[in-house]
């Protein structure tokens, strides 16, 4: 929870693609916090220009740090999708970026962390605090329990358990966050192509006349820093899950972002589907029935 003192301190948002950087920025501004968005070129939406902003390439850490210090900003949120996974071109890396990598080389060689965790380490090594989107905008997360008119039944609980097991295994390997299960059997897991592509592959094998069955499960990776790369759902997720013939969606409670919870619930209710926020460490889900 943001303290009263922190509530008036300026906040930076390192923005990738999608709506979440804008939603977090609005939440911060509404709470009285000045905001600076650092939009990653080729990823962030031009809509960030409605806020105080700068544009940076992925390797321009020096420009990022300079802007934060000039504004007296000590806290930063990393939020939004990153489609481009290649290393930055040399022309995209400034001297501050090279210096950060060189001075923290020994630290970065420890373990096999994800790119986001490495960037977070570089940022914190320069004296800034990385905070989670949920800390700034808790209303963007899915709470525990059933959120829809329809609740998962006994067969759905079996699917949820199978989906959690698969998503957890996937997360341990840092390969993805989502899985689809039907009749207690996992039929698809997320790849680098993302959740929508996984659901599209399930939809191909699903007839429109089939009775809805199965679940999409999305969970925070077991070893994932909850400030980074949180799973997310939105109205498009609902549409894709419906096209795939699924009965519902289960997500890790408190660690899954949603662009428009009321809209998502309404869309699921309209389709007779369920949404449940779960604790992946539990083994029983009868309380959601």
Textual characterization of the structure:
The protein is 34% helix and 18% strand. By secondary structure, the protein is α/β, with parallel strands linked by helices. The protein has a 6-stranded mixed β-sheet, sandwiched between helices. Strand 1 (11-15), helix 1 and strand 2 (35-40) form a beta-alpha-beta unit. The chain is elongated, with a radius of gyration of 20 Å.
Classified by CATH, the class of the largest domain is Alpha Beta
Radius of gyration: 20 Å
Strand order of the largest sheet: 6-13-11-9-7-8
**Total helical segments:** 10
In short:
With 289 residues, the protein is of the alpha/beta class.
List its salient traits.
13 strands, Rossmann fold, Cytidine Deaminase, domain 2, single chain, elongated, 2 domains, alpha/beta, disordered C terminus
Layout of helices and strands:
Layout (H helix, E strand, L loop, with lengths): L10 E5 L4 H11 L4 E6 L12 E4 L4 H10 L4 E5 L15 H9 L1 H4 L6 H11 L3 E3 L1 H4 L8 E2 L7 H19 L5 E5 L2 E5 L5 H10 L10 E4 L13 E2 L1 H9 L4 E5 L4 E2 L2 H11 L2 E5 L11
Parallel strand pairs: 1-2, 1-4, 2-3, 4-5, 9-11, 10-12, 11-13
Antiparallel strand pairs: 6-13, 7-8, 7-9
